[in-house]
Amino acid sequence: MTGMVNRIAPIAVVVAAIMIIWYGFTVHLNAPWQIERYEKAGTEWQMSDLVRDTMAQGRPILPAPHQIVTEIWNTTVKKKITSKRSLIYHGSITLSSTLLGFAMGTILGIGLAVSIVENRAMDKSLMPWIITSQTIPILAIAPMIIVVLNAVGLSGLVPKALISTYLSFFPVVVGMVKGLRSPDPMLMDLMRTYKASRLQTFWKLRLPASVPFLFASMKVAIAISLVGAIVGELPTGAVAGLGARLLAGSYYGQTIQIWSALISAACMAALLVGVVGLISHFALRRMGLRT
Amino acid sequence: MSQDTNSTPAIQADKLCLTFDANDGPVHALKDVDLTIEKGDFVSFIGPSGCGKTTLLRVIADLEHPTGGTISVNGMTPEEARLGGAYGYVFQAPALLAWRTIERNIGLPLEIMGISRAEQAERVQRTLELVGLDGFGRKFPWQLSGGMQQRASIARALAFDADLLLMDEPFGALDEIVRDHLNEQLLQLWKKTGKTICFVTHSIPEAVYLSTRIVVMSPRPGRVTDIIESDLPDERPLDIRESKRFLEIAQRVRNGLREGHSYD
Hints:
Structural class of chain B: alpha/beta
Number of helices of chain B: 8
Mean pLDDT of chain B: 88
Order of helices and strands of chain B: EEEHEHEHHHEHEHEEH
Strand order of the largest sheet of chain B: 5-6-7-3-8-9
Oligomer: heterodimer
Helix content of chain B: 25-40%
Radius of gyration of chain B: 18 Å
Largest sheet of chain B: 6 strands, mixed
Order of helices and strands of chain A: HHHHHHHHHHH
Low-confidence stretches of chain B: none
Structural class of chain A: mainly alpha
CATH class of the largest domain in chain A: Mainly Alpha
Distance between the termini of chain A: 22 Å
Shape of chain A: elongated
Number of domains of chain A: 2
Number of helices of chain A: 11
Distance between the termini of chain B: 47 Å
Strand content of chain A: under 5%
Low-confidence stretches of chain A: none
């Protein structure tokens, strides 16, 4: 019981602090427009009116937290999933390309890491390119990928997933290379005294030793997969997905819609990282490793 | 070529040299080492750090390659001996795979050698009993104390029945009480199995207590300065370490080490 309190209390304090600051800024940032309206209409207003009205604007500069929560509630629970205005509908589209991109990125990352560790030429030739690939701003390259793939007849889920892959393979490569190289020299010597083949050393020593590293990288990879999927939805004029929702919101000045898509994306990221963390916990426990 | 295997020494080194190239010039890890170890011997290598005792063990195990002289293990080159599974190696640390149970750690060399599952289980059980870890086979390494982990790694080295056991300061990281206990057990194990044991240590009492022969080494360049035959009785209770003969041998080892040091 006290354990739970100890864990939740610090988080609750931070959340409360953020809420107070947020509400403060809501009033502060939305006040000028509100005051202008009062003056145009010639209404008498008091501080309490201002506070109430700045938190109830249709297109506020900064929506109040409860407006966002209401919007999310209205577009998830109260909307049919098939509706074009349902956040669950948009979220599931983003989620599917996130997961596809994450899966491809993880497989690609593992494959590259294995070839880098097992082959010196690959190590020398591939690694610089892998690092270079991440120095290119994804916002610059995402439209190119979409356009090029469109030209060869690929559209919809796959191009967006490929942008996720482009981002997510990187932490997996870096983590896996480190993991595959993590066995102590003593253990490598041990395998040598058993005249173990390269393949045996790989399966019995390198690969199992890399598993904790793999899961740590996958936690990063799934979060940036989601970023990749959303970025992939931005430049394409996509009509569905959280990215499309963000874009549509910004076209029409629907700040509440933008913020609710944003918060949903953040929650989804937290959930995905949490799920990977949970799988990691049980997988490592099953391997007999302390987590 | 038919050779009487009983008369072939377990290890024979002639003018063995090993020089590492370091940035500030060559390091003579081993220089002109002549050594013969007969089958069934318990030989300790003792000396200060840098005297090449671990390097010598690694050369025997084909983990390092000599730059001069010759060495044979069971009448073969170290590489042939390694490929033939001639020795078990025990490292300074237990070097157990964290994701394998004790059983599966001990079974690792057997798995790699492609021994059938049934025989693996039988041999694992036998070696577990031999090192007194019966009943701990299903535990993971972290669930065992340091001493038990090291015993598991000895069991692993014994599991594939090599005649030669190479041990590189296996008890160096353990406290003295555990160490005494393991020394006693190791001696019994040696008597029971009749294996040849090469044992690296930097503890004089440990070397004298365990060995039939003590090889005293000194650094810069790493070389053998004295080889002491121990005439202590086969039956060695721990309190033999207070006997006059034991202290005499220990004194001779100490003198040998001191002489080696007078060079620098």
